[in-house]
Amino acid sequence: MKITIRVEVTTDYGETATFEICKIDRPYRELEPAKVGLSLAEGKDVLHELQKIMVAMQAEEVCMLRRFCTRCHRFLDLKDRRIRKVDTVFGTVPFRSARIICCPCGTPSQWSSRIAR
Ligand SMILES: [Zn+2]
After folding, report:
1. pTM of the model
2. How far is the CA of 57 from the centre of ligand 1 (A)?
3. In a structure prediction context, what are the per-residue pLDDT tens digits for the chain, which is 117 residues long?
């Protein structure tokens, strides 16, 4: 049996993306207890990969929504993106954090998409 674990993410503004987390192979002749279901290591890997996808997508969604100026609704450019890390219950997860350029209308920029350092 071959098992593929995918996660589908739909943002609050309606974009959907699918990510493959892993593929697991379980030959039908191997039914010893260690080969039934997920191993602890596989389970941890699946959760860590899921966490990485969730954090990345949440950071992207926050960034996208904050790129619209609250006063003039202009779509703001990015200064750059940097790798940040957040500690979660499933391990430390790196993600790309964007810095947004302030709007020429003078509205103070909203806080960045940075979740944690
Ligand atoms: Zn503006």
Report:
1. 0.78
2. 25
3. 999 999 999 998 899 999 999 999 988 887 787 788 899 999 999 999 999 999 999 999 999 989 999 999 999 999 999 999 999 998 899 999 999 999 999 887 665 444 444
CA of 42 to the centre of ligand 1 (A): 47
H or E element, residue 46: helix 40-66
**How far is 41 from 29, CA to CA, in rounded Å?**
21
Q: Where are the domains of the chain?
A: 2-100
Distance 8 CA to ligand 1 centre (A): 33
Ligand 1 is an ion; its neighbours by CB within 5 Å are: 69, 71-72, 74, 103, 105, 107
